[in-house]
């Protein structure tokens, strides 16, 4: 998906009807932004899977897949990554971002990465949130990692029969 790649941020992720009450997305606003660095996407979910969220760029942003006694909750975006790790990833793929038309010059990529580095150090900085166009939930580590904590909290109650 090089012409539609999401780099740094996945914007306006929105729950599907099936995702409204799913425990993976508990506590999420109806629409949110998340860290993202990917050039591949899930084109089709397996039969019986449940689409939980998507956006205009990537139809499958969150899903539940059940197989035999296994339950898999997955997201396309990266709640596990810190903002500093996202900045590092942007710097590493600067030429790809330019080629995809997301940036004109390496300096543009560096500028975005530097803002993410600064927000990593000062998540409460409203000025940095404004410059990146993100809210406090994205800036705050706990808010950004909500799917991870939701999964861990749900483990004891998952019905694997």
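Q: What amino acid sequence fits the structure above?
A:
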């Amino acid at each position: 998906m090089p012409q539609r790649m999401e780099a740094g941020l996945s914007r306006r992720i929105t729950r599907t009807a099936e995702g409204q009450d799913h425990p993976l997305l508990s506590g999420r606003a109806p629409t949110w932004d998340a860290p993202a660095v990917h050039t591949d996407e899930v084109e089709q979910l397996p039969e019986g899977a449940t689409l939980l969220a998507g956006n205009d760029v990537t139809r499958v942003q969150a899903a539940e897949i059940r197989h035999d006694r296994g339950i898999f909750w997955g997201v396309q975006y990266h709640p596990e990554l810190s903002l500093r790790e996202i900045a590092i990833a942007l710097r590493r793929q600067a030429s790809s971002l330019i080629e995809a038309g997301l940036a004109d010059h390496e300096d543009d990529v560096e500028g975005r990465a530097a803002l993410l580095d600064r927000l990593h150090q000062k998540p409460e900085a409203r000025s940095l949130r404004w410059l990146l166009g993100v809210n406090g939930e994205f800036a705050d580590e706990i808010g950004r990692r909500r799917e991870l904590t939701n999964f861990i909290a749900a483990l004891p109650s998952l019905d694997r029969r």
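Q: And what stands out in the fold?
A: The chain has a mean pLDDT of 91.
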